[in-house]
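Supplementary Note 3. Input sequence used for the single-chain structure prediction.
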Amino acid sequence: MNQITPMLPVDREPTIRVIPMPKDSNAAGDVFGGWIMSQVDLAGSVPAVAHAKGRVVTVAVNEFIFKEPVFVGDLCSFYADVDKVGRTSMRVRVEVYAQRRLQPDNVAKVTEAYITYVAVDEHRNPRPVEPLK
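The predicted structure, written as discrete structure tokens, is reproduced below.
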């Protein structure tokens, strides 16, 4: 696939940015998919919590596509936005870009995912959220 884009998205700010370290890699030297999934879940929870105005729980990974490998030392930028809202649930789209060796002109979109979160109260019961504006 090798989808190279000249820069990171300029119309929005990353939700989180992180550099994977050697402990995050597998025997082949690529970053574990599970590490990327956990970072995606963290990034996705940020707009979900903001929209719900409180605690949320992850209830589904609706879609997860690994487009390119991530390497130790890549600067990974996670962009997350709520794209659909139900009565108690929110679906969040997360896109991940890797700046190869921190070079601003060498960026690849490496992952795209949709995660569903449910707003919960202090007893962990689902609670309503506002519609998407």
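The beta strands are 4-5, 16-18, 56-66, 75-85, 89-99, 107-119. The mean pLDDT is 93.
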